[in-house]
Amino acid sequence: MTTVIDCVAIGDEIMKEIVKETEELKAKGITPGIATLLVGDDFGSKMYRGQVEKFCEEAGFNYVNENPPADATEADVIAIVEKLNADKSVSGILPLRPFPEQISDTVVINTIDVNKDIDCFHPFNMGKLALGEATFPPATPAAVIEILERYARNEEKVDPKDFFEGAEIVVVGHSNIVGKPVAFLALNRNATTSVTHVFTSMKGNLEKHTTGADILIVAAGKPDLIGPEQVKDGAIVIDVGINRVKVVDDKGEPVLNEKGKQKTKTVGDVSFDAVKDKTKAISPVPKGVGSVTNRMLMKNALRACKINNGLI
Ligand code: NAP
User: Of ligand 1's atoms, which has the minimum distance to the CA of residue 199?
Assistant: First the structure.
């Protein structure tokens, strides 16, 4: 019997914990806060900015919106980061990329106070993550681990420590924001961790690795990359991918909406319907890892707030 992991419920549970901790901090006269830094008006970044603002409102956080125009200079943006570094109402700074080409990602990220770097972009915090001493585990990888830990505790009734130790974990994707950091988090929990990527696929070796996984974490951004033949019977599958695809009917013909345009839907990297029954547990898309990611960012902001106020 497969468990479809209820990531929305996990996200809601974490939000309740965040609200409670925020109230406790506010009782001490301290309010956590997040600042987003969006240069210009990239559509995806604007959507994400709006979500962060909404969650800050729900949790009772301060929220600061820095949105210089697309033709801002690097010096302008650095000045904003330095202002946010000094602003006591801001616990964490979230740069929303891509930046316009005149602004270097590296220069901006290296300017962020390491104790306000709540999505772990700064090389100092990435180094700490690799050493197993993460101050701010990045939000999406942290969401994957949090989902697995809560699944272990609530569904399998095992200590997450025992759940991870010696487990065969295979990660598909080695990006700096998802694949690599989630592999470090798994390795730091003593899982036997392998990382695969596009070159693994190009050599025809992806299946060889994924079929050995007790826990398969997929973050490639490729719909239907993982089908039943890539999954071991009884594996736990966490699908991080978010892809927008066109909807077709049984004959492969486009399905149109009321305006006569082809319908689209959001899917992950795993062929959910085909894979589900082979697994012990699987996270869906939508309503999957994404339901927990922003909450992990807020947990990091709470932690930053406590660090910056000398509470930890
Ligand atoms: P990315 O930077 O494009 O990285 C994708 C990774 O997948 C790369 O390491 C790439 O390898 C690998 N890959 C691509 N095709 C592959 C194949 N055929 N076989 C094996 N590996 C392959 O993407 P990302 O930022 O890590 O994000 C990954 C996915 O997660 C995207 O769909 C994104 O939208 C989603 N995402 C979800 C959340 C959430 O909260 N749920 C948050 C962030 C991202 P190479 O580098 O070697 O090409």
Answer: 47
What are the start and end residues of each CATH 3.40.50.10860 domain in the chain? 28-114
The Cα–Cα gap between 269 and 239 comes to 6
pTM of the model: 0.96
- Distance of CA 120 from the midpoint of ligand 1 (Å): 18
Separation of 242 CA from ligand 1 center, angstroms? 9
Q: Is the CB of 222 under 6 A from ligand 1?
A: yes
Residue nearest to atom 2 of ligand 1 (CA): 175
CB-based contacts of 21, cutoff 8 Å, min separation 6: 302
In what helix (H) or strand (E) does residue 33 lie, and over which residues does it extend?
A: strand 33-38
Q: What is the pLDDT of residues 86-131, one digit of tens each?
A: 999 999 999 999 999 999 999 999 999 999 999 999 999 999 999 9
| Superfamily of domain covering 28-114 | Leucine Dehydrogenase, chain A, domain 1 (3.40.50.10860)
CA of 289 to the centre of ligand 1 (A): 14
Rounded distance between C-alpha atoms, residue 26 and residue 19, angstroms: 10
